Amino acid sequence: MFRNALFASLLCTATAAHAHYGMIIPSENMVTGNEGREIALTLSFSHPFEEAGMEMAPPARFTVTHDGATTDLTGTLTPATVMGADGFTTRYTLPRPGSHVFALEPVPYWEPAEDAFILHYTKTYVSAFGDDEGWDAELGLKTEIVPLSKPFALWAGNVFQGIVKRDGAALPYAEVEVEHYNTEGRAAPDELMITQTIKADANGVFTYAAPFAGWWGFAALTEADYTLPMDGQDKGVELGAVIWVHFEDVK
Amino acid sequence: MKVIAMIAALLAATPALAHGLNVFASVEGEQIVIEARFANGRAALGAKVQVFDGNDILLVTATTSGEETRVPLVGQDTGVRIVVDAGDGHSDYWIMTPADLVAQ
């Protein structure tokens, strides 16, 4: 009995870690304005389904883009513990109606288990004051998911569609990992259900229907066309185009 | 605390339901600049604008005629509730606190 338990414990220890995600989670993603115009934003590098954080270094850049103008918010970030690890928070007062795109460029994260660096360009969209103008804004990041469905105002069960882009061009048949930010503590029926993987079509377009409400992260992963040094050796860099989308409950 | 009570009073006097219209207002110079747009982004033309103070007293009326409608800066003591009614149930409001109503 004890031996079986020990064996099971060892197997669990050896289980591969689930997907890493850059995360930007706003306190609200559709702000009406008359009940307050300030939102809180939480930035982290985490395993969202398991709510397990990883140490996040101060980001290279954190910005908000509205109506084509980008404002640097990096200096507003405050260190915080997020899912048990180092992350950041900030507050932002939405100045005008329309979509506000928050984007995070972290510094490369060294992942010894993968013998590679991870660099996730992460973004999320917040609609202000009933105006959705700019919901399909493309920021021109190194790699990016450009929404084809509004990245807010989605019911649970709706599909979310996006185009995976790398250096501004659509990426045919890109792999997209999908994971729920599991704040409800749901149990997955199988490990395969924690991170689901889908592929884009020949035009780089992917489609996913969220089965229940909450935050869902979509990460399109590619290998960088450059390496970074670690202990005197050149190491590969995983680039992630990550977008966080909230689906709403039918009440 | 006073500001919270004032916002609560402004909200309490709010029309029942906003529908298909979005109102936003800001201060420029000595004026309140009011923007009223339908969900498709088009400006609401000929809509009735009413500006109430925190005691629900009507201070200013106007009619929209373009992208922006300007009215004098009023209600700095109590805050204002700006109601725009474009008819057919298309109405919305925007609340400005005393802190919002500072001449720029």
Keyword list:
heterodimer, A: 251 residues, mainly beta, Immunoglobulin-like, twelve-stranded mixed β-sheet, five-stranded antiparallel β-sheet, 1 helix, 21 strands, 5% helix, disordered N terminus, B: 104 residues, four-stranded antiparallel β-sheet, globular, signal (chain B), Nickel transport protein (chain B), DUF4198 (chain A)
Could you say what the CATH topology of chain A is called?
Immunoglobulin-like
Helix content of chain B: 10-25%
Q: Average pLDDT of chain B, to the nearest integer?
A: 87
Secondary structure: helix percent of chain A: under 10%
Quaternary state, please?
A: heterodimer
Provide the gyration radius of chain A in Å.
Answer: 18 Å
The percentage of residues in β strands of chain B lies in 35-45%
- Number of helical runs of chain A? 1
The CATH class of chain B turns out to be Mainly Beta
| Secondary structure tally: strands of chain B | 7
Radius of gyration of chain B: 13 Å
Protein name (chain A): Cobalt/nickel transport protein
Signal peptide (chain A): 1-19
InterPro entries (chain A): DUF4198
Keywords (chain A): Signal
Give an overview in words.
The complex is a heterodimer of chains A (251) and B (104). By secondary structure, chain A is mainly beta. Chain A has one helix and 21 strands. Chain A has one helix at residues 2-14; strands at 21-26, 30-31, 38-47, 52-54, 61-66, 69-72, 78-82, 85-93, 98-105, 109-111, 116-128, 143-147, 154-155, 159-166, 169-170, 175-180, 196-199, 205-209, 214-223, 228-230, 233-248. In chain A, the strands form three sheets. In chain A, strands 2, 5, 6, 9, 10, 11, 13, 16, 17, 19, 20 and 21 form a twelve-stranded mixed β-sheet that branches. In chain A, strands 1, 3, 4, 7 and 8 form a five-stranded antiparallel β-sheet that branches. In chain A, strands 12, 14, 15 and 18 form a four-stranded antiparallel β-sheet that branches. The radius of gyration of chain A is 18 Å and the shape is globular. With 104 residues, chain B is mainly β. Chain B has one domain (2-96): Immunoglobulin-like, CATH 2.60.40.10. Helix content of chain B is 11%, strand content 42%. Chain B contains one helix and seven strands, in the order αβββββββ. A four-stranded antiparallel β-sheet of chain B has the order 4-3-6-7, covered by helices on one side. A three-stranded antiparallel β-sheet of chain B has the order 1-2-5, with no helix packed on it. The two termini of chain B are 25 Å apart. Chains A and B meet through loops of A and β1 and β7 of B. Chain B: It comes from Rubricella aquisinus.
